[in-house]
Specification:
Layout lengths: L1 H4 L5 H8 L9 E2 L12 E5 L12 E5 L6 H7 L2 H8 L2 E6 L22 H16 L6 E6 L1 H12 L6 E5 L19 H4 L7 H10 L10 E7 L8 H14 L8 E3 L7 E7 L2 E6 L10 H8 L3
Parallel strand pairs: 3-4, 3-5, 5-6, 6-7, 7-10
Antiparallel strand pairs: 1-2, 2-4, 8-9, 9-10
Helix pairs in contact: 5-6, 8-9
Bound molecules: 2-acetamido-2-deoxy-beta-D-glucopyranose (7 copies).
Length: 301
């Protein structure tokens, strides 16, 4: 074929045309001052070249871990490549805090429109929806570690905005809450899995983050490794209790248990139509992103 005969210097462009799974667009840094961004979170966006207002694209918000950046998550996670395949836009927020963890501790970030990092990220989603005429039924959020904590916080604070969340090795929404109001404060008790509550207690914490809300909430998928020594495995159980409490499911009785799913040594528990937990035997911090599974859960595949 023609591709085989082009000069070596053109080979990568040529294979990009032949292979839809290559990032053809580039990561954009959005600095538009009309976006409400109370904590100065970096706003990076990946839109495949063929996305435009007529296609009503979906949006995936993909949130990095501590020490990470938007650029690192763009390079190191599969979402931009998957965006080429499925035609959605990826928003990569970048933490403004030293050490680049997310603020999942202050009252501001744990409140709907409270002026914290969660508010800043929701503002980016709003702007992207308007700019690309995105499909508001296809807005999703995911993240790893600190980004997984923020994923739980975003679905709790903006339940009307997101249709689903996928959490790779995080903690329950509100588990890092700082009674003294610390912004981006570390919470050792939560880290080691010793912040516990009943399902109803955890559900109240979620509801308090957006007290007026009574609509449908995002469906959730929670991944955690049994050998996680950064965010101890009991945080998996507490997160499952939290969303089981919200959805009124019995966290002690999964409706379905699938061993070696989606891969060897992972067990997938289905608690109801809106909650799955995937407990990964022998896996540490963080559980590797399961891109093709994510596409199924978000409904793109
Ligand atoms: C900023 O975003 C607004 C809203 O989408 C748009 O009208 C405006 O043109 C943008 N400004 C720049 C400088 O891109
Ligand atoms: C926008 O997308 C539609 C549908 O895929 C396509 O027909 C159209 O050519 C695109 N427009 C631009 C300006 O790329
Ligand atoms: C998003 O847009 C809606 C509708 O314009 C507005 O009511 C809401 O306050 C916005 N939220 C954020 C976080 O910007
Ligand atoms: C850690 O978070 C819990 C709430 O989950 C809170 O009760 C506790 O005081 C926090 N610890 C610190 C040191 O802020
Ligand atoms: C939900 O809240 C809205 C606005 O406050 C109200 O109109 C509606 O009746 C409530 N629905 C339920 C099921 O409580
Ligand atoms: C947490 O959940 C897993 C999976 O259901 C279970 O094997 C484990 O015993 C639970 N741990 C605790 C401390 O309840
Ligand atoms: C699954 O777990 C067993 C027992 O810990 C281990 O020996 C095996 O290597 C694991 N398999 C894979 C594919 O990770």
């Amino acid at each position: 074929m023609v591709c085989l005969r082009v000069l070596a210097v053109l080979a990568s462009a040529c294979s990009a045309l032949a292979n839809p799974l290559i990032k053809r667009a580039s990561l954009q840094h959005i600095t538009n001052s009309s976006i409400s961004n109370p904590t100065n979170v970096g706003f990076y966006l990946y839109a495949p070249d063929n996305v435009n207002v007529t296609t009503k694209p979906g949006i995936v918000v993909a949130i990095h871990y501590c020490t990470g950046t938007a650029q690192a998550y763009y390079s190191g996670s599969p979402y931009a490549t998957l965006a080429e395949q499925y035609g959605f836009i990826v928003i990569y927020p970048s933490s403004p805090h030293e050490g680049t963890c997310w603020d999942v501790s202050s009252k501001a970030t744990l409140s709907h429109n409270g002026g914290g990092d969660s508010n800043a990220i929701a503002g980016m989603v709003n702007w992207t929806v308007a700019k690309y005429n995105a499909d508001t039924e296809k807005i999703f959020v995911t993240g790893s570690s600190s980004g997984a904590m923020m994923t739980n916080v975003l679905v709790a604070t903006y339940p009307e905005m997101f249709k689903a969340g996928i959490v790779y090795s995080g903690v329950a929404a509100g588990c890092f809450a700082s009674p003294s109001g610390g912004v981006d404060a570390w919470n050792y008790t939560c880290q080691i899995g010793e912040v516990t509550a009943t399902p109803e207690g955890w559900a109240d914490i979620v509801r308090d983050m957006d007290p007026g809300y009574n609509g449908t909430r995002p469906k959730m998928q929670i991944y955690h490794g049994t050998a996680d020594t950064a965010l101890y495995p009991n945080n998996y159980n507490e997160t499952i209790k939290q969303w089981a409490g919200v959805f009124d499911y019995d966290y002690t009785k999964p409706l379905k248990t699938e061993v070696d799913t989606p891969q060897t040594n992972y067990t997938r528990y289905t608690f109801g139509p809106r909650l799955q937990g995937i407990y990964a035997e022998g896996v540490g911090h963080t559980v590797p992103i399961q891109g093709s599974e994510d596409m199924k859960f978000f409904g793109f595949a």
